[in-house]
Amino acid sequence: MAAGQWRVVLDEAYKALRTTAEGIPADAWDLPTPCERWTVTQVLQHATGDQTAFAAAIVGGAGPSEDPFAPSGRIEGDKLSGLRAALDASAHAWAGVADDDPQVRTPLPQGALPAEVGAVACALDAAVHAWDIAVATGQPSPLHDDLARPLLEVARQIVEPLRNYGAYAPALDAGAEADDVSALLSYLGRDPRWAGVRL
Q1: For residue range 49-104, what is the model confidence (pLDDT) as tens digits?
Q2: pLDDT at site 16
Q3: pTM, rounded to two decimals
Q4: What is the CATH number of the domain that holds 115?
């Protein structure tokens, strides 16, 4: 990855999550998602908590208000205000990181990581949960091969230990002819052809 390219990947992932969340239909908040046992609301809560956790790890401050891995499924008031604040905080935190910083604090079990690995790990979380919400609510996929390629490169560096924490399901076989998006989703334990059922 070219120096500083992680900033482009991160910005695109932020945009994917923000745009997809803003496109959630009013009647879709309780729909099932590719994240087994989680509704659209719960995936949004989880993604919000993860971005808050990255910001807190980098610059300090309060972490998520609830466990991102046990989302309540209830959001009072403006359902998107928490996500907007979390994305803004995460973007602000990464803006203060040097392109080649070798040790950036992260909330991951691996701890501090090189800037390009940690930032793309943060982007991976945002982009993949954007996909979860998009396919659950009938929106276009926010993933494309140019975004999926660097996400997959970093996923292969960080995901295996995270499976032990329940963060990702076991990898699926994408097949030899899979495109980069399908390869990424399959590696993360998601079926690229997933289609939910409207409740």
Answers
A1: 999 999 999 999 889 988 998 999 999 999 999 999 999 999 999 999 999 999 99
A2: 98
A3: 0.94
A4: 1.20.120.450
> Domain residues for 135?
5-144
Q: Provide the domain count of the chain.
A: 1
Give, to the nearest 10 degrees, the angle between helix 81-95 and helix 40-59: 30
Q: Do the domain assignments include residue 193? A: no
**Per the domain annotation, does 103 fall within a domain?**
yes
Instruction: Compute the chain's Rg from CA coordinates.
Output: 16
**Alpha-carbon distance 112 to 172, whole Å?**
28
Distances (CA, A) of 30 to 25, 83, 189, 197: 11, 17, 22, 11
* 58 found inside a domain: yes
Instruction: Report which residue type is found at 154.
Output: V
Residue 19, domain member (yes or no): yes
C-alpha distance from residue 11 to each of 40, 64, 100, 108, 183 (Å): 22, 21, 17, 20, 22
CB 120 within 8 A of CB 10: yes
Q: Rounded distance, CA 137 to CA 56, Å?
A: 30
* Look-up of token digits 């466990």: 67
The contacts of residue 153 (CB under 8 Å, 6+ apart) are: 1, 120
